[in-house]
Amino acid sequence: MGFRVFDHDERRERACQARDKHGRHADSNMRVSMSTRRLARAILCTACLAVAGCNDTTLLEKLDQFQANQTLAALQRRNIAARKISRGKQGYDIAVPPDDYTAAVDTLHALDLPPRARVDIAQAFPSDVMVASPSAERARLLSLIEQRLEQTLTTIESVDRASVHLSYPLDDASGSARHSIHIAALIVHEAGVDEQELVVKLKRFLRNAVADTRYEDISITLFESEPPQIAPPARAEPAPLDSRRWLSFVLGGGASVGLLSALGWARWRRMRAPRSHADEPDRAPFDAVVESSGRIDNARARDSR
């Protein structure tokens, strides 16, 4: 009779091959499911960022880091959801939600923000010139001393901000130069500080830090800092939909449709995979092994007779 006899080893090999093929198919389905989930997360994050970014209104543009940080801190202390946006070489922008725009503008006017850019005398006398005069070198040195003194004074306890000015040597009409240096310091300190003790401490420090300076040539002006005012901003009336809101709705709707489409496609793939024709060859080795086993048993039974 024309039937093929499968031995025990061949049947085991056929079964192993069938299991391997079935496992590879399951792994491919798992990879498709994982990639679909990653795609869905990416679409969702993009939609959130698009909606959040389009809703904000630019309040200030092209600020340096100091101006942006001071303005951002003042707005956030008043519960205004401001955020700082880096523009690379163009500086920083400050953006706020449309509902907080009116309160943010009022805060800027009340606090005189953003602060003006710092004037650096050293920039007026660059160090890369061909010939530098002695007056330019001295002015640059005094400017650096001012900045260093300001940084050190702010490290003193109860001192919030400090601004130090040194008198620059200017020649008079007779040609004689002034050698004594006068110092004027503006100090913003915390509330509840003994101002007389603070003035004595500051004068002693400045007298020892700058040469050719006398106590009577040092002037200290004190200001008490205001406590942080944290209050909810005055909400403006809701404005009609503008182009930015329309854009945010369009982007958010498109991202939502894409997310739902991706999830539906993944579910369709999972439901279709068990019924696809690709799975039918996976069962063929099992059927062949069972059929061959039955034929072997029948042949052995006939031989025994």
Automatic annotation (TrEMBL):
GO terms for biological process: protein secretion. It holds the Pfam family YscJ_FliF. It is found in: Cell outer membrane. It is a lipid-anchor. InterPro entries: AMP-bd_C_sf, FliF_N_dom, T3SS_SctJ, YscJ/FliF. Keywords: Cell outer membrane, Lipoprotein, Membrane, Palmitate, Protein transport, Signal, Transmembrane, Transmembrane helix, Transport. Residues 274-305 are annotated as: Disordered. Residues 276-285 have a biased composition (Basic and acidic residues). NCBIfam families: III_secr_YscJ. Belongs to the YscJ lipoprotein family. This is Lipoprotein. It comes from Pararobbsia silviterrae.
